[in-house]
């Protein structure tokens, strides 16, 4: 966005020509400095693996991911005949079946008369918007493929008593209970024997604010030299590297409390899907397959367009935890 500076804004007395506007003596001046534009933060590069990204060529490609078979351990007694196992495994399919594009046109007249590089500005913004759109698409879908023991009101593959929230009954999170939620998600990974290194947790902005209001205000609890209130960084909490994202999906869920015919109304009926895990959980592959410039057939101008194909799959469901929470 550019800012226009015009002589129209300095008033003239009654009957006095301002020499601006239609008279044309005082021209409008457009600022050559573009206003800063803020974009949503993306997290896919931090929470997924892209081990097979180099193998895709275009939309519709399929990548077969071979998995390591599990070897059976048997009891042994002296002199017994051994039973031999033939290890087998079912490969996973990573289908590159999604694509997003942009296509912008720049008229020749605008290109000549503009005092800024419009096409560079358009394509730079398109690249940012592409990242945001794909990030939101993946985050809105993958949480559903978390292992059964890592989601719901009875999570915990061993304990079975961890409430991570469920449809109709999202878990309420406050500044007093937000750390309990984080610890419960960590416990789900522990019960799945998921490695402690490389763990991540993605939360919405309101939950990050609650974390800063929690007991973590005391710097020694985070292991940092400064409290999160001072440095603004959430850092690592119970082995999780925390990320804040505005691309997490949310739904309206009144639950029994605010359902039609109920006895009360829930002031905030938004439930959020938050996630935790390791980079082994989600495989993601993306590639810009086409970026091209061509002449427009319907006007005098150039068209710049680009196509990004991608695909994703939860390849290790036991390494992904889904929390369903509300404020």
Commentary on this structure:
With 327 residues, the protein is an alpha+beta fold. It has 2 domains: 1-36, no CATH class; 38-327, Alpha-Beta Complex (phage-related protein like fold). Helix content is 20%, strand content 25%. Strands 6, 7, 8, 9, 10, 11 and 14 form a 7-stranded mixed β-sheet that branches. A 3-stranded antiparallel β-sheet has the order 5-13-12. Strand 12 and strand 13 (301-314) form a beta hairpin. It is flat. The two termini are 35 Å apart. 27% of the residues are buried.
User: What is the terminal-to-terminal distance?
Assistant: 35 Å
CATH A-level architecture of the largest domain: Alpha-Beta Complex
* H and E order: EEHEEEHHEHEHHHEEEHEEEE
Biggest pleated-sheet summary: 7 strands, mixed
* CA-based shape: flat
Mean pLDDT value: 79
Indicate the structural class: alpha+beta
CATH topology of the largest domain: phage-related protein like fold
Q: How many DSSP E strands?
A: 14
Kindly give the count of domains: 2
Percent of residues in helices comes to 10-25%
Percentage beta strand:
25-35%
CATH class value of the largest domain: Alpha Beta
Radius of gyration (Å): 27 Å
The parts where pLDDT drops under 50 for at least 5 residues are 1-7, 228-232, 258-264
Number of alpha- plus pi-helical segments: 8
